[in-house]
């Protein structure tokens, strides 16, 4: 027994030493700002949440304002439960608007009060809806009881799938609800504004969120699209928001839906096909606890994305359509905190931020590889109102305090123009991360770079799936294609000492009820900060060489303007 314990201890220390030494060699990163490879799109500026009513709460409003402020274009926001029955419900994985009820004679009664409150909150902050026709109002559900669920972290996930998940008892009444909502939106916000939104049907209909068949989903989509287009012919509507394209059954659902839209018999018109303005699916990673620490699995998420892109690209008539990855995250349950789900302990600190930097760069690369039109990638992470500080939800902020991951999106907000070529002696390309994730000896030390008319930027990360301590990476950066003059240089950093309210909170003693003074300190610590003061650097014929140290799970943004 003692021999087994000693061997285990030796293996653990060997693994830690191995990880600590894995970054000792220098990484060379070469950026040529003259070699453009694609647009630096704002596909990252999309977010979402199960709980729509949080949007107009205090911390929800604050976070929406921050999301809008960091993006050079309007942010899109996706939410579930926009048609769910009930009044202003503020619980996990739930929400309600009560837009649809029926009187004693079965006549529809529409009430837009709450849904207007949600969308008004978005639009007042420059946010645009990715509006979702879901879920089934109680009056239209064939199994209305039980309806509202009372799920809490730690409870079985399947407990949430109640009466709201069913196809309607009357498809024509559902279609009229869709028509009236779109019509009301045009009347309230104007045709031009609503034309700029995206509209979709349901969420993850290939799992418990939908208690019907794939054929019944296609039928509901036909009724929904027809009604929406009658209310606004120029509306942008799509689907099917299936999850896990790399799963066989999920792939079958996605392909069946796309074939239906191309060549199936329309359930409403009787003609061939159904309107489809964009295609959506989900992609999730799979963290776990191994040898006492969190181990991420970026490869699982990227394989979902890769397979989704492959499926879309296999339809020549659809390949040009915008793709929206409606949820794209390190795992699947935003409301499952790290106390009940210890594999989610990555969420408060820098592992979430470095994962985000590294994975989003590979989404650009995968879209380039398949030559598809990636429009948006929704981070299913917002905030949870009135919950404990740093509980370990998958959120961007906790009680109004920004987490490190939000600062990655602030970095993305400073990148514009064209993506440019990045080369060097990095150990991973996008195919390697997709196929085998980031395991073993080498960390993923890499970069994403962009150049605009008067600015350039390089985002660097030092990522590994295993959340263990390791030595800082030494990175030699060789930049070409900059102006031959003095240019301003800014170095932003996310690590344990910078842009990190979580580490500050822990140093305070992890207060459950921070004082007003502590909250002010935490709010400041949650912002994106400079590692060093801005300076001027002189290039040599447009070239510049830099050497930086980057901690494990750290992210840097090197910004230049002139």
Automatic annotation (TrEMBL):
It comes from the Bacteria. One of its GO terms (biological process) is carbohydrate metabolic process. This is Beta-xylosidase. Gene3D superfamilies: Glycosidases, Glycosyl hydrolase domain, family 39. GO terms for molecular function: hydrolase activity, hydrolyzing O-glycosyl compounds. Belongs to the glycosyl hydrolase 39 family. Residues 1-19 form the signal peptide. Residues 28-525 form the Glycosyl hydrolases family 39 N-terminal catalytic domain. Keywords: Glycosidase, Hydrolase, Signal. The active site is at residue 204. The keyword Hydrolase applies.
């Amino acid at each position: 027994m003692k021999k087994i314990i000693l061997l285990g201890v030796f293996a653990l220390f060997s693994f830690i030493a191995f990880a600590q030494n894995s970054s000792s060699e220098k990484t060379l990163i070469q950026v040529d700002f003259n070699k453009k490879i694609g647009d630096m799109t704002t596909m990252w500026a999309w977010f979402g949440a199960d709980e729509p009513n949080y949007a107009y709460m205090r911390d929800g409003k604050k976070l929406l304002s921050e999301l809008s402020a960091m993006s050079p274009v309007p942010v899109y926001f996706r939410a579930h439960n926009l048609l769910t029955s009930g009044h202003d419900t503020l619980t996990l994985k739930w929400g309600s608007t009560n837009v649809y009820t029926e009187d004693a004679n079965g006549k529809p009664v529409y009430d837009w009060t709450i849904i207007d409150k949600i969308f008004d909150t978005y639009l007042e902050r420059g946010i645009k809806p990715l509006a979702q026709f879901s879920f089934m109002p109680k009056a239209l559900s064939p199994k209305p009881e039980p309806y509202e669920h009372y799920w809490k972290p730690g409870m079985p996930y399947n407990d949430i799938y109640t009466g709201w998940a069913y196809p309607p008892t009357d498809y024509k009444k559902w279609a009229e609800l869709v028509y009236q909502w779109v019509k009301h939106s045009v009347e309230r916000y104007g045709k031009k504004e609503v034309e700029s939104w995206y509209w979709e049907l349901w969420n993850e209909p290939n799992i418990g969120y939908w208690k019907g068949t794939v054929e019944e989903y296609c039928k509901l989509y036909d009724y929904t699209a027809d009604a929406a287009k009658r209310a606004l012919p120029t509306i942008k509507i799509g689907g099917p928001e299936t999850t896990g394209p790399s799963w066989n059954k999920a792939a079958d659902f996605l392909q069946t839906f796309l074939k239906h839209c191309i060549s199936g018999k329309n359930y409403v018109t009787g003609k061939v096909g159904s309107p489809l303005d964009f295609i959506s699916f989900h992609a999730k990673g799979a963290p776990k606890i191994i040898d006492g620490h969190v181990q991420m699995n970026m490869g699982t998420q990227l394989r979902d994305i890769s397979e989704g892109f492959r499926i879309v690209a296999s339809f020549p008539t659809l390949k040009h359509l915008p793709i929206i990855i409606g949820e794209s995250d390190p795992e699947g349950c935003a409301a499952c905190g790290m106390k009940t789900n210890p594999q989610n302990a990555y969420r408060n600190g820098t592992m979430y931020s470095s994962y985000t930097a590294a994975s989003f760069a590979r989404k650009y690369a995968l879209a380039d590889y398949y030559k598809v039109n990636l429009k948006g990638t929704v981070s299913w992470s917002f905030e949870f109102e009135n919950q404990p500080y740093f509980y370990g939800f998958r959120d961007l902020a906790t009680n109004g305090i920004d987490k490190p991951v939000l600062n990655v999106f602030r970095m993305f907000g400073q990148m514009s123009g064209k993506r440019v070529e990045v080369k060097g002696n990095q150990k991973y390309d996008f195919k390697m991360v997709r196929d085998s994730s980031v395991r073993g000896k080498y960390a993923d030390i890499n970069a994403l770079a962009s150049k605009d008319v008067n600015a350039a930027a390089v985002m660097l990360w030092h990522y590994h799936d295993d959340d263990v301590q390791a030595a800082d990476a030494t990175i030699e950066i060789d930049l070409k294609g900059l102006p031959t003059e003095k240019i301003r240089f800014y170095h932003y950093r996310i690590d344990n000492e910078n842009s990190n309210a979580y580490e500050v909170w822990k140093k305070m003693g992890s207060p459950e009820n921070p004082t007003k003074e502590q909250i002010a300190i935490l709010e400041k610590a949650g912002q994106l900060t400079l590692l060093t003061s801005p300076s001027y650097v002189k290039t040599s014929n447009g070239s510049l060489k830099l050497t930086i140290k980057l901690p494990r799970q750290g992210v840097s943004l090197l910004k230049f303007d002139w």
